[in-house]
Design goal:
about 280 residues, alpha/beta, 434 Repressor (Amino-terminal Domain), Endonuclease, Chain A, 2 domains, six-stranded mixed β-sheet, 6 strands, elongated
């Protein structure tokens, strides 16, 4: 009997990939557990791939392709490459996928972060270090989420990228996420980004005390074709904000935080100084 969840996956990139994986596995007369053991992942993960509940990373796909009994000739990796947009984005949580589409369609993003580097500017190792703190996630979960996050960043290098305006609490630059080497690379990424014409980064000094943004991170996405929408971070998940009064509240908070932040040139100097401090710590 087909469940409603299975029906909802029908025809999607992950369902197509899962069906092909199941074909090769059954042709080789391997159980899910046997295939998982050969590819160094669990049988439950193989089941999740086949049913379209989860999406393998490209490296995990290559590991499966390399199982000799399957005799795929690299077909799964080739299929992954053809379906890669759908494959990567399915790793995003269901509750986040609507926001990801709004983010991708925005002409401008106004982003405040008091704790971590914004996802669109994270390096691979920084993102991995963040995801590794989540309770109960497997190494495969982490790699899927890292791949999805890096895929989202492509919005900044497309032909007509959105303007990205970021305000950071300075403590974001000082918190040793992943250790000094990870932070050195991450600060280098921020310095590089701050010099790009479509990205502005402003920093609220650490000695500034309490400010409006201590209640949490948020984003406002502006579009030429629709009213601005917002997004609030909370423990464990985030929440899109479309109510006009709530969006106006976020815009007011943004304006207030701008008054607390250093100008772009001074903020760049803070970024460069923070990068040097991590360089001396490595």
């Amino acid at each position: 009997m087909t469940t409603s969840n299975e029906s909802s996956q029908e025809g999607t990139p992950r369902a197509v990939f899962g069906a092909m994986l199941r074909f090769y596995r059954q042709r080789a007369e391997l159980s899910q557990e046997a295939l998982g053991a050969r590819a160094h992942i669990s049988g439950k993960t193989i089941s999740a791939y086949e049913n379209g509940w989860r999406v393998p990373t490209r490296p995990a796909t290559a590991d499966i392709d390399a199982v000799p009994e399957l005799r795929t000739g690299g077909a799964l990796t080739e299929l992954w490459d053809k379906l890669k947009d759908g494959m990567n984005y399915q790793a995003l949580p269901t509750w986040f996928q609507d926001w990801a589409s709004k983010e991708a369609g925005a002409t401008a993003l106004r982003w405040f972060e008091p704790l971590v580097v914004p996802g669109l500017l994270q390096t691979e190792d920084y993102a991995r270090a963040i995801f590794q703190t989540r309770f109960g996630v497997t190494s495969e979960d982490i790699e899927e989420r890292v791949a999805a996050r890096l895929k989202r960043q492509e919005v900044l290098i497309r032909e007509a990228p959105p303007a990205l305006w970021v305000i950071l609490d300075e403590w974001v630059l000082r918190r040793p996420v992943g250790g000094p080497h990870v932070m050195l690379e991450q600060l280098g990424r921020l310095v590089e980004a701050a010099r790009q014409p479509n990205i502005a980064i402003e920093v609220i000094p650490a000695d500034g005390g309490a400010h409006e943004g201590l209640t949490g991170a948020f984003i406002v996405a502006d579009s030429a074709e629709a009213p601005s929408v917002g997004y609030r971070e909370a423990a464990g998940r985030g929440y899109p904000v479309e109510d006009r009064e709530e969006v106006a509240s976020l815009e007011l908070a943004w304006a207030t935080l701008r008054g607390e932040a250093l100008p772009r040139k001074a903020s760049l100097a803070v970024l460069e100084e923070a990068a040097k401090s991590w360089s001396s710590a490595t």
